[in-house]
């Protein structure tokens, strides 16, 4: 009887250990490959890229040449260039969509401010799909978030939805968040941030590993925190400067000698343990290979 | 008596060994025995924060400056997706209620800040806009 009292105390103590103290089995992940594409800005006309459709085509050709082939593509916003009229915007969404569908590879998108800020994502929802949603591939959880359609934040309503969805998933499964703007203050004066990012990431506090894939900044930058890694993709339209000071964000004219400079996409291989290997494909490299073969 | 002491001894020892590693519910009431460093006490404000122009100025830098500019004259660091600039917030007709409504609900490409800002924060921003639109004293006429 005395022994039992001692034992039950031990059991109560051990039964409440925080997750992860003891070895845990990794949940069934089937290794797979996917592509991170971003900021295609279809419809843009100007000096920063004189043929945005052409650079997207090149990117899609590079994707088609991948071996093994990717199972799907994620596109983190600014699919189209904003325009004053709905008719023009609609045509740009249609053009983007038909190019993507032409690959025969499934694709998942999130909106960028060019796609959704002017009408709070109304047209985007008709032309592309929901502004935020969740899906699962090969044992990896994906949360596609909208941090642009009402301003650079996720906002109360969407955060409530997120809090509900989070309860439905396994916090030990690798988790990827897709969003257009970074979920940290990268550079606030250029709107390279999400106002309520901390509140959003706090919802994932008990998750074992969270990776945020974002776009918006048109260059490779990343941030590593204990449980969260954030990584930007490349644009297929034009590169942007890194923040240097309190100056207005401007893009520069496309180089005549190196028109594909800074453009590309990223290929992500998810391994059986949920690890991710990221490879960057630069369109300028692809062109050099073309020339030499 | 000895039986009781013995049982207490077993329980106390168990806690002493496992408790600090486990941070457990059962040991919760006694956790302060195991803690190395004191936890700072939460600061409880005496009253809810009042709206202020200082809070407004701070919020403005983080939420508004990119589009409306550091001086509020519409010369921001970021162009709207259409390539245009956000309007100047100087030279507005003083109307705190209507400003707060615009800030909260948004309009066109002006964000709907009510999704992330509370009433006190909206009031503070209105106070800050006021300071950009001086004088707000009633004209003598």
Automatic annotation (TrEMBL), chain A:
Superkingdom of this protein's organism: Bacteria
A Pfam family this chain is assigned to: Metallophos
Domain Calcineurin-like phosphoesterase residues, every copy: 32-219
PANTHER family assigned to the protein according to its UniProt record, in alphabetical order: METALLOPHOSPHOESTERASE, CALCINEURIN SUPERFAMILY, SERINE_THREONINE-PROTEIN PHOSPHATASE CPPED1
Protein name: Calcineurin-like phosphoesterase domain-containing protein
Organism listed in the record: Sulfobacillus thermotolerans
UniProtKB/TrEMBL annotation, chain B:
UniProt keywords, alphabetically: Heme, Iron, Metal-binding
SUPFAM superfamilies associated with the record: Cytochrome c
Pfam families: Cytochrome_CBB3
Occurrences of domain Cytochrome c (ranges): 51-133
Keyword check for Heme: yes
InterPro entries with a match to the protein in the record: Cyt_c-like_dom, Cyt_c-like_dom_sf, Cytochrome_c-type_DH
Organism superkingdom: Bacteria
Keyword ATP-binding attached: no
Name the record gives this protein: Cytochrome c domain-containing protein
Taxonomic lineage: Bacteria, Bacillati, Bacillota, Clostridia, Eubacteriales
